[in-house]
Amino acid sequence: MDQLFSKLRKYEIMIRKVANNHLQGEYQSLFKGSGLEFDDLRPYQYGDDVRTIEWKVSAKGHGTFVKTFREDKEQSVYFLLDISGSQDIGQQGNKKIDQGKLIAGVLTLAAVYEGSQIGLISYSDQQEKLVLPAKGSKQGVKIIRGIFDHANKSLKTDLNGMFSFALNLIKKRSIIIVISDFIDQDYERSFRALAERHDLVAIQLTDPRESALPALGIIPIFDKERGKTTWVNTAFGSFSKKISETFTIEREYLKELCKKNQINYLALDTTQDIVSPLIDLFKYRNKRMKRG
Fold first, then answer.
1. Minimal CA–CA distance to 181: which of 246, 282, 268?
2. 90 φ, ψ to 5°?
3. pLDDT tens per residue across span 74-96
4. Which one of 32, 131, 142, 238 counts the least CB within 10 Å of its CB?
5. Helix, strand, or coil here: 119?
6. Does the CA dihedral 30-32-38-41 come out positive or negative?
7. pLDDT (tens digit, 9 = 90+) per residue, 37-78?
8. From start to end of the chain, where are the E strands?
9. Cα–Cα distance measured from residue 141 to residue 246, given in angstroms and rounded to the nearest whole number
10. Minimal CA–CA distance to 90: which of 181, 11, 168?
11. Among 125, 122, 86, CA closest to 104
C-alpha cells in the first residue's frame, strides 16, 4: 500500500507542477464547479436565460418563473468508477481498469490537497463500494483503499443502474467524475439527468485492441461479463473493419452526447501517460470557469 501511495503521490505532484505552470496556480479548477445551487424562484424578466425557466411551476398558469441560484462553496466531489468486466482489457498491469483506478487515486489525492469533500461509488451491475463524502487525508486513504483493495461481487455492466443510483443518492449539487469505458446501452437518460443536476465530467477509457483486432483466423473470445466463450473469424477484413467502425461511431456518439449536455469529456487510451490528458482537462475547465 505504501508503494501505491508513493506512486500516486508522484503523479499527483507532477500534475500539480505542470498545471500550476499552465494555469496560473489554478490547479483546483477540476474540483471547483460552477459552484451554484438552487436558491429560489422569481418571475421571468426579459433577457433571462430560458434554460433557467422552471416549467412545472410556470405550467400552472400564474406566469413564467425562473430558478435563481446562489454560490455554493462546499461542493462535494464524487468519483463514479465503473469496475465491470469489460474494463479488464489491455496489457497486464496497464488495463483499462488499472488506468481507471490510477486516475481515481491520483485525483483523490489532488482533491484532498485542495480541501474538497470526496466520495466514491464503485459499480458493476450493482453497488460495489460506497464511501460517502468527507474531507481530509483519512478520507483520502479510505477512498484509495476502496478503489484498490476491493474484490468485485459481479463483472457485469449496468451504467444506467450506476447513474440512477447516483441520482437517488446525491441530492446536493456536486462535481461527479465518471470513469468508465462506456461500453453499455440505454444509459443516456439517467446520464443526462445526472448532468442536469450536477457538474459532470466523463473520462472514457479505451484500449487499441478494441478497435484493431489482428487477423488470427478463427479464435475464441472470452466474454468476462457473460462468462462464456464465443468463436469469431478475425481473418475476414470486413470483421476487423466493422469492429473498428463500431468503436469509432460509439466514441463519437458519446462525445456528441457530452457536448450537447455540457458534460466535460476526456478520452484516455491505456497506452497514454495519464498526466497530459488530465492537464488538458484542468485547462479546459479553467477556461470554461473564466468564461462563466
1. 268
2. 130, -175
3. 679 999 999 998 888 888 888 99
4. 238
5. strand
6. negative
7. 566 788 988 877 777 888 888 888 788 888 876 655 567 999
8. 36-43, 65-71, 76-82, 90-91, 94-95, 117-123, 127-134, 175-180, 199-206, 218-223, 228-233, 264-269
9. 39
10. 181
11. 122
- Cell numbers 490510477: residue: 102
Per this entry, what is the length of the chain?
292
User: What cell was used for 109?
Assistant: 489525492
Q: Cell 481507471: give the residue.
A: 100
The phi, psi pair for 115, rounded to 5°, reads 75, 25
The answer to whether 84 and 225 are in contact (CB under 8 A) is: yes
Give 65's strand partners. 43
131: closest CA among 114, 113, 115, 149? 149
Buried b (16+ CB within 10 A) or exposed e, 55-81: eeebeeeeeebbbeeeebeebbbbbbb
Query: Any bridge partners for residue 66, and if so which?
Result: 42, 53
Q: pTM for this structure?
A: 0.80
At residue 224, what are phi and psi to the nearest 5 degrees? -60, -35
Residues 6+ apart with CB under 8 A from 64: 43, 44, 53, 58
Residue 171 · residue 235 · CB < 8 Å: no
C-alpha pair distances (Å), 276 with each of 18, 268, 273: 9, 10, 7
